[in-house]
């Protein structure tokens, strides 16, 4: 007999961690047969409050929430940080449990990529060539491939992604539409630290000085939004405003500051047409950070 209702609830809600596709499907299939809705939150682990907001949103909107924890090798380029990317499954399980998730799917690379000769899912066109696609040419092919696998494995009612990865969101929206995936893709607003810095697993790479300097990213985007709402619709002027603010921070090294129309990241002429995405990528030391804001 349980000593308290709180203990009973805690034990009932204990997160189940599985590592194989077969086991996950065996758990989900009877639940879906009962008419249960399933939310999927794809992650690469090293979970933080930004991920927790995705998980808690799914938990509110679905009967079952599955969180995948998989550092996907196919979306990393040869010189990128795949080997160094943090792997913190034990603490990730606690984040999932506290946020209301039910199942963690933590497969090995061999489980997700069983064949040496790969089958790829690739979204082509401007949508994957601009922004991060310019310097990370294989990245979105890897993202689309692994997410399509997760959609097929889990068969979710809804899938949850963060607005911080805005280009990824646009790519996956296109993939869902073109491949007729029967699910709702939900986008959750950027979760920020009190300073305004967008939460990211890569923030752990920053030293104290770099982290303080990186706050300039959100400040610059807020100033651009303020100017836009005041009537400035000039694409180049808004980009220049953001660029000039960031350049005043000596630790910053700008990779890009760009603006594209939504949906689909289409090229703008001279003026911003709402809604549009103002996005940036900036390095602080060896750490590459991205952030964005919607002009609407």
What's the topology here?
Layout: H1 5-12, E1 16-18, H2 21-33, E2 38-43, H3 49-61, E3 64-69, H4 89-99, E4 103-105, H5 109-112, H6 126-129, H7 139-154, E5 158-162, H8 166-178, E6 184-188, H9 208-213, H10 216-229, H11 235-247, E7 252-261, E8 276-284, E9 287-295
Parallel strand pairs: 1-4, 2-3, 2-5, 3-4, 5-6
Antiparallel strand pairs: 7-8, 8-9
Helix pairs in contact: 3-4, 7-8, 10-11
Task: Characterise the protein shown here.
- By secondary structure, the protein is of the alpha/beta class.
- It has 11 helices and 9 strands.
- It has helices at residues 5-12, 21-33, 49-61, 89-99, 109-112, 126-129, 139-154, 166-178, 208-213, 216-229, 235-247, and strands spanning 16-18, 38-43, 64-69, 103-105, 158-162, 184-188, 252-261, 276-284, 287-295.
- The strands form 2 sheets. Strands 1-4-3-2-5-6 form a 6-stranded parallel β-sheet, with helices on both faces.
- Strand 5 (158-162), helix 8 and strand 6 form a beta-alpha-beta unit.
- Helix 3 packs across helix 4 (89-99) and helix 10 runs antiparallel to helix 11 (235-247).
- Mean pLDDT is 94; it is low at 1-12.
